């Protein structure tokens, strides 16, 4: 079995050593021991860290991500949770696309000021309603 030193894991993942130590502390990953003061990991840790990074990118919290790994460290993903998160992302993408288009319109609007732009006024009203929800 190949053993990876913490420096190798850092180099391969781009994560900081403090992040690896924190993930180990909260049980997301496990080191297999130490050589001196340096933690040692199995190559599977790289895949676990990739999944953690992907989960974070998808908006899952570290607590949610920790529940996605079985006792053996292998992914145990709920397909329903994944579908729900994908639906959430689709809604966010839609909302951000609408916002982006509105901002581009306002940036190119011929009105003397943003406050005189009807589309900007509508954007403000929509933002107020969304904040209340």
Explain what the structure shows.
- With 133 residues, the protein is mostly helical.
- It has 2 domains: 4-66, Multidrug-efflux Transporter Regulator, Chain: A, Domain 2 (Orthogonal Bundle), CATH 1.10.1660; 79-132, no CATH class.
- It is 61% helix and 7% strand.
- It has 6 helices and 3 strands, in the order βααββαααα.
- It has helices at residues 6-13, 17-25, 44-57, 62-66, 79-108, 118-132, and strands at 4-5, 33-35, 38-41.
- Strands 1-3-2 form a 3-stranded antiparallel β-sheet.
- β2 and β3 (38-41) form a beta hairpin.
- The radius of gyration is 22 Å and the shape is elongated.
- This is MerR family transcriptional regulator.
Q: What amount of the residues lies in strands?
A: 5-15%
- The helix/strand class is mainly alpha
Sheet with the most strands, sense and barrel status: 3 strands, antiparallel
Give the tally of structural domains: 2
Distance between the termini: 53 Å
- Helix and strand string, N-terminal first? EHHEEHHHH
Determine the fraction of residues in helical runs and give it as a percent range.
55-70%
Q: Please provide the count of β strands.
A: 3
Indicate the overall shape.
Answer: elongated
**Helix count?**
6
Regions with pLDDT < 50 over 5+ consecutive residues?
Answer: none
User: Strands of the biggest beta sheet: in what spatial order?
Assistant: 1-3-2
User: What's the CATH architecture name of the largest domain?
Assistant: Orthogonal Bundle
| CATH top level label of the largest domain | Mainly Alpha
Mean pLDDT: 86
**CATH topology-level fold name of the largest domain:** Multidrug-efflux Transporter Regulator, Chain: A, Domain 2
Q: C-alpha Rg, in Å?
A: 22 Å
């Amino acid at each position: 079995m190949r053993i990876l030193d913490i420096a190798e894991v850092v180099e391969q993942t781009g994560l900081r050593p403090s992040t690896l130590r924190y993930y180990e502390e909260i049980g997301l990953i496990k080191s297999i021991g130490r050589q001196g003061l340096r933690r040692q990991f199995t190559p599977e840790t790289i895949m676990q860290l990739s999944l953690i990074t992907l989960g974070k990118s998808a908006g899952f919290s570290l607590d949610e991500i920790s529940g996605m790994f079985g006792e053996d460290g292998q992914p145990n993903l709920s397909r329903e949770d994944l579908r729900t998160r994908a639906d959430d992302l689709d809604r966010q993408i839609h909302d951000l696309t609408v916002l982006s288009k509105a901002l581009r319109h306002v940036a190119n609007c011929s009105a003397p000021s943003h406050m005189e732009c009807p589309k900007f006024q509508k954007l403000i009203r929509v933002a107020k309603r969304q904040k209340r929800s």
